[in-house]
Every structure is written in structure tokens, then in C-alpha cells.
Design brief:
heterodimer; A: 39% helix; disordered C terminus; B: mainly alpha; 3 helices; Asp/Glu-ADT_sf_sub_c (chain B); transferase (chain B); GATC amidotransferase (chain B)
């Protein structure tokens, strides 16, 4: 029998052999969530339903009839996906108390596979932001802030003072999901990715973050931000697990007309040994202003890694890269202005007490329900959509979008298989530093390297690569061709194996059975 | 150029979201400035792109068959004010007061 890889496969095997039961697994994860509450990764913990799901899974294993690899595996879901019977807030006052009447398609698919839904994770309000700091439930803390690796590198004054003031952000907006996976409270988590919201926190939290091709995975039930760019994102501890999750989520959904109708065949990743037929492109424009010398060096080292292994590594150009963020800014705010119009207090969500007129009730509801970031984007979006501005800004941005998408097409047509770029400009910033700049400025800075893949709809993945001088994770990004996730993940997996990214050493986390947690060699890339 | 108070008021009315304070207005100004960089790009002859999937013709029409529904109870569950099977709204057709009469920050600018 073929050797199955990945953490989920290992756990699945352990469940089948009875070395651990789904309820034990669920209880341990729930306990860990409690003991890592200070991370603020979860908004809602669905303890009762999770235990019930775990019990049902256990019954199936007893009968020898598990539903698949994911049966009994604890997962978490970003709080902008609808989950039936469970509060879905988008970290906003607008949806506090909103109990979804249905499951998002991706949530339903996971539940149908027997996955155990532990809870909903924290994010920036309505997924707008790159720090997971701007939600109404407060910021998410990066688990690496509490790691031995980071603490060792921090200039120590008093021990307790450090922890409170030195903690670093997770990145965003899927920070809660990234922190949840990174701190071992779940085996995989769903995020969303519109401008980098899955890959950015994945890089900062040292986990794998996959943005699939637009149109591959259903957005039905994902509360939309930018309909033409949003995708559900997958966060896992290793590339093999991302492939497993992808396999259970991808495919046409009649409820989402923007999913392609082609048949999707789930795949197992081969163990690539020969990269000599591979052509890796290094886009020179991704050497962006503000890129830390550390990350530049790692990127270079990675390119050499491929070269020394026999791959063809070429410098390429994506000339419109620097306009991507501006283009995104216009298209995003315009689509947001439209998408946020549904929040008026009538059918669901927060409702103001103002009664004079429908419009005044709407206006008051929206003033009370949305934070400044969301309101700012709505107002900007409406500005760009004004009759006098429509051609000048919105249509112009749509034309620039085509230029950006064409840049990628040209490069892939020239024989390049995969692009290799940094994911973020720096390692994770301390929270106190991060909040000095406003959300829009930060997003504009932080999305620079991830955003273009959303413009062009291409699949992209963050692979944790090495620790920075501050002891924090740094990841690199691979961008692939449309719908070529298998190739993308195969290369990512090869790279993951080469770099042997170290495991986080969290004092708070009691290490469980070897069977349950994969131990990676401590030899690291840097 | 600065955005006129008329346009700001118009935006508040369209968006049903108010600027709250000078920071809000400044935020818009900065956003416009940022977006103006788009005009550096030559887009002659380029068609606007609506969707990255435009080549795949995946946006289709399905048959007009009723496949789901009858979920009135679920849909009403999350509404705060309802009567029988209706959502209840305050009186409509009453426009928001004009800028001069509104309780908005823009008054003082």
C-alpha cells in the first residue's frame, strides 16, 4: 500500500487503529483552546456540537466505516463562513448574535466528511485588514510570541513585561485560523483570501496557507468581500494536509455560479525527487520597497536551492506589479460598497432603534454596526462608483486588472512553471508597532506581494521556510498556473521537505502522543 | 483637489454611512490620491476585465426549476422586528434630511 503522508493521514490511521479516539482528540483540542485563550484565536467555541460530532465519528470508526481521511479530525473555521446554528459574526457589531440558518458549502463538505468543527476563528472586521487586529473581539496574538524561539531572541527586561508588550501580530485577516493551526488547537482551518488574507497570516504564524484558483472552491456561504477575488483559503501544518483539504472542498457547486464546471479529481501528492524539468520564475518586481534584507536573502537562498537541485531558475518580469495594490484598492472598495449594502438591520444583524424613517434607521444601523475601516471602504467605493468617476476609476482599474493578469499569462507561456516570491515584506511586527499606522496604509503595504495572485485568480501557497533573526517564522510564496494546484503543491511539498521548518516550542502546550503530532527535525533552513 | 461638501453629502446619502469626523473625510481624500496613481498606466485598447473566468463561460443560466424554499421560519429567525411573515420597517418614502438639516459632521466643515 502506498505510504500516506501528512498529519491528517497519520491521525486518520491512528483513529482507524484505535490508538486514539475522536472524542479524546476533540477533548484535547478543546482543552488546549482553553489553555491558549490568551491568543484570542477563537470567537466561538462550539464545544457541545463538536463533542457530539466526535461521538458520531467514534461510532463510525467502531463500525469500521469512517467517512474518509477527515473523519474525526478537529478543524476550525474563520468567522466569515456561515455555520448553521452557530453564531457568525465577521468580528463585527453588525452581526453579533447572528445565528446562521445554513452551512457554507465548504463547511457542509467538511462536516459530510466527518470533520469535527471546534469553533469559529477571529479575524479583522469583515476580513478587512492585514493584522487581525481590527475586529470587535480584539486582536489575535501570534502563538510564536510565546515560543521559546522568540523569547530567546527578545531583549529581556522583566519577564512578564515582555509577554504583555512584546507580543506580535498574526497578520491577517485570517489570523485566528492561522493561530489556531499554529498552536495545535486544530489540524486544519478555513480562512478566506481576497488580497492575501490566508497567505499573510500563514507566513507570520509558520503554517501552510493555500489560496486556490478562483472558481475552484465554492464561495456559497462565505460572506463576500470582493466577489471577483474572494476564495476560501486552507491553512494546515503541512502541504500534504492542504492537498487533503483541497480534495474534499474543490469542485463545482450549483449554488455558486462562479465555480467552474470541470470535474475536479482529488489527488495525492507524489514525492518529487527530480526537479530538473522544472522552470522556476523569479519576478524581479517582487523585490519590493520595504522587503527586509533577511527575507531577500532567504528568497535568494531558495532560488539557489532549486538551481542546485537541477531546476531551471530564471528571472522574469511582471511589469504591472506595482499597480496591483492601487488597482485592488479601487476594485475592492467598489465591490465592498456593493456587498455591504445588504446590511440594513431589517432581515438580520444589528438594528438601530431609530424609527423615523427607513433610511434613517438604515443609516443609524450602519453607523452603529460597522467600524471605521469598513465605513471608510464603503465611502471610498461609492466615490469611485459615482457617475462622474466610474470610467475614470472603476473601469480604469478593470483595464489595469487585465494588464496584471496578462503579465502572468505571458510569463507562464514563456515556459515558466511556478513563480517563487516572498510572501511578506518582514516578519511579524509587535502589536504596539503595528497599530501606529492605520489599517489602509498597513494593508497597502502588507498586501503588495500577495495581492496580484488574487487579481489574476491564480493559485498561490505560503510555505514556512525559516525563522528570522527575531525567532519568528518567515514564509515564501509559490504562484502557479490556473487550476494547476497539483503541480503547485507538488513543488511546494518538495520545498517543504528541503527546508525542514522547525516546530514551534510552546511551553504552554503539553506535548501529546508522538502518534498525534508530527515531529519534524530541528535542523532548519537558515 | 478636495472633494466638495456637496459630493461628501451625496456620498453619505448614497452609502447610508456617515463620515463621522474629519479623519473620515481625510481618509477619503487619501484614498482618492492613492487611486489616482492608476492614471499613470497606459490602458489604450484594453478591455475592462469583469472576471478572471471570462474565457471559461462558466457564468450560466440554469433551468427555472424550484429546487429549494419553504424556509420562511429560518429566514425570519434573525430579524429583530417582524409581524407574522413580514419584516417590519419604519415608514419609507421619507428621504434623509438635506445636508443642512442633518446631524452630520459635515455641517461644521
Amino acid at each position: 500500500a502506498a505510504l500516506k503522508h501528512g498529519l491528517c493521514s497519520q491521525v486518520s490511521a491512528a483513529l482507524k487503529e484505535g490508538r486514539v479516539t475522536p472524542t479524546e482528540l476533540c477533548q484535547r483540542c478543546l482543552a488546549l483552546i482553553k489553555s491558549t485563550k490568551f491568543l484570542n484565536a477563537y470567537i466561538t467555541v462550539a464545544e457541545e456540537t463538536a463533542l457530539k460530532q466526535a461521538e458520531e465519528s467514534e461510532e463510525r470508526y467502531k463500525r469500521g466505516q469512517p467517512l474518509g481521511i477527515l473523519d474525526g479530525i478537529p478543524i476550525a473555521v474563520k468567522d466569515n463562513f456561515n455555520t448553521a446554528g452557530i453564531e457568525t459574526t465577521c468580528a463585527s457589531n453588525m452581526l453579533k448574535g447572528y445565528i446562521s440558518p445554513y452551512n457554507a458549502t465548504v463547511v457542509q463538505k467538511l462536516l459530510d466528511q466527518g470533520a469535527v468543527l471546534l469553533g469559529k476563528t477571529n479575524l479583522d472586521e469583515f476580513a478587512m485588514g492585514s493584522g487581525s487586529t481590527d475586529g470587535v473581539f480584539g486582536p489575535v496574538r501570534n502563538p510564536w510570541s510565546y515560543s521559546k524561539q522568540y523569547k530567546e531572541k527578545s531583549v529581556s527586561k522583566s519577564h512578564s513585561e515582555d509577554e504583555e508588550s512584546n507580543w506580535v501580530i498574526t497578520g491577517g485577516s485570517s489570523g485566528g485560523s492561522a493561530a489556531a493551526v499554529s498552536s495545535f488547537t486544530c489540524f486544519a482551518a478555513l480562512g478566506s483570501d481576497t488580497g492575501g488574507s490566508t497567505r499573510n497570516p500563514a507566513a507570520h504564524c509558520g503554517v501552510v496557507g493555500l489560496k486556490p484558483t478562483y472558481g475552484l472552491i465554492s464561495r456559497h456561504g462565505l460572506i463576500p468581500l470582493v466577489n471577483s477575488m474572494d476564495v476560501p483559503g486552507i491553512l494546515t501544518r503541512c502541504v500534504d494536509d492542504a492537498a487533503v483539504l483541497l480534495g474534499s472542498l474543490a469542485g463545482h457547486d450549483p449554488k455558486d455560479s462562479t465555480t467552474v464546471q470541470d470535474d475536479f479529481k482529488p489527488f495525492e501528492l507524489p514525492n518529487l525527487t527530480d526537479v530538473s524539468k522544472l522552470s522556476i520564475g523569479i519576478p524581479k518586481e517582487y523585490h519590493a520597497p520595504g522587503l527586509s534584507s533577511e527575507i531577500l536573502a532567504l528568497w535568494s537562498k531558495a532560488a539557489d536551492l532549486f538551481k542546485n537541485a537541477g531546476a531551471k531558475v530564471v528571472e522574469v518580469s511582471l511589469p504591472h506589479t506595482r499597480y496591483s495594490i492601487v488597482c485592488y484598492h479601487v476594485l475592492c472598495t467598489a465591490e465592498v460598497a456593493s456587498n455591504m449594502a445588504r446590511f440594513d438591520g431589517l432581515e438580520y444583524g444589528h438594528r438601530s432603534d431609530k424609527k423615523e424613517s427607513t433610511e434613517s434607521m438604515y443609516a443609524a444601523t450602519r453607523r452603529e454596526g460597522f467600524n471605521d475601516v469598513v465605513r471608510g471602504r464603503i465611502l471610498s467605493g461609492n466615490y469611485f462608483l459615482l457617475k462622474q468617476n466610474y470610467e475614470k476609476y472603476f473601469v480604469k482599474a478593470q483595464k489595469v486588472r487585465r494588464l496584471i493578469a496578462n503579465d502572468f499569462i505571458k510569463v507562464f507561456r514563456s515556459g515558466v512553471d511556478i513563480l517563487l516570491t516572498p510572501t511578506t515584506l518582514t516578519d511579524a511586527a509587535p502589536y504596539t508597532e503595528f497599530i501606529q499606522e492605520d489599517n489602509r496604509t498597513r494593508s497597502a503595504q502588507d498586501d503588495v506581494l500577495t495581492q496580484a495572485a488574487n487579481m489574476a485568480g491564480l493559485p498561490a501557497i505560503n510555505v514556512p521556510t525559516a525563522l528570522s533573526e527575531r525567532g519568528l517564522p518567515v514564509g515564501l510564496q509559490f504562484i502557479g498556473r490556473s487550476f494547476q494546484e497539483k503541480q503547485l503543491l507538488t513543488v511546494a511539498k518538495w520545498f517543504e521537505k528541503q527546508v525542514q521548518f522547525p516546530m514551534i516550542q510552546l511551553e504552554e502546550v503539553k506535548r501529546h502522543d508522538n502518534v498525534v503530532f508530527q515531529h519534524q527535525k530541528s535542523a532548519s533552513f537558515s | 483637489q478636495e472633494v466638495s461638501v456637496e459630493v461628501l453629502g451625496h456620498l453619505e446619502h448614497l452609502a447610508l454611512v456617515d463620515f463621522r469626523d474629519s479623519e473620515g473625510v481625510e481618509r477619503l481624500q487619501k484614498a482618492i490620491q492613492f487611486a489616482d496613481q492608476l492614471h499613470e498606466v497606459n490602458t489604450d485598447g484594453m478591455e475592462p476585465m469583469d472576471s478572471v473566468l471570462e474565457d471559461r463561460w462558466c457564468v450560466y443560466l440554469r433551468e427555472d426549476d424550484v429546487t429549494e424554499g419553504n424556509c420562511t421560519k429560518d429566514l425570519l429567525e434573525n430579524a429583530r422586528e417582524k409581524v407574522e411573515e413580514y419584516f417590519v420597517a419604519p415608514p419609507g418614502n421619507i428621504p434623509l434630511p438635506k445636508l443642512e438639516e442633518r446631524d452630520t459632521f459635515l455641517q461644521s466643515s
